[in-house]
Amino acid sequence: MTENHFYHTIEKPSAAEYKDRGSKFVAYAFPLISKETFKEQLKWVKTRHPKATHYCFAYRLGMNSTEFRVSDDGEPSGSAGRPILGQIDSRELTNTLIVVVRYFGGSLLGVPGLINAYKTAASLALQHVPVIRKPVEINYRLAFDYTTLNDVMRVVKQHHCSVISQDLQLFCTMTIGIPKTDLEEVTARLNELRALDWKKL
Known about the structure:
This protein has 201 residues and is of the alpha+beta class. The protein folds into two domains: 131 residues, Ribosomal Protein S5, domain 2 (2-Layer Sandwich), CATH 3.30.230.30; 65 residues, 2-Layer Sandwich (Alpha-Beta Plaits). Helices cover 31% and strands 37% of the residues. Strand 4 and strand 5 form a beta hairpin. Helix 2 packs parallel to helix 3. The chain is elongated and about 70 Å long. 32% of the residues are buried.
């Protein structure tokens, strides 16, 4: 199995805290599935820390190294988001988000001090959580009659596909992630099922 069939991410959310000259930096690391879940996680952090001064973040998504985002959220340009992303990249992670919340302590840290603080807080959050290797998945949308559900689920479970979303009525729709390593076999088995429409997303 070639390495590009797998990627590394964090197993579960984690948090850590770093202080410098009165300012407090609280870092949260999350496994990330999509841009939509990023918005939910950022909102959760802001709700948890309503009086914080800054909410800086970075994430990297997918196998394409161009899909990332950074935010300094009012800090000097390049002093927060990029150092946070640097910690994700130094561990060769993807599908990972880090949000660092800052409470200003009264003393200016300067750009070098800010870079160090955001980098250190992000690094501490990642140190607290295991890195895991996961299969690269290709997403497909399935549409089928309810009578076909058991056959579909048998294929999904036997090949360890992820169920991303599902709507199980008399007529069912389901979005699944098929491991790249099993793609040919799974699509061949889906082709054998009657009353099933499927397409790559």
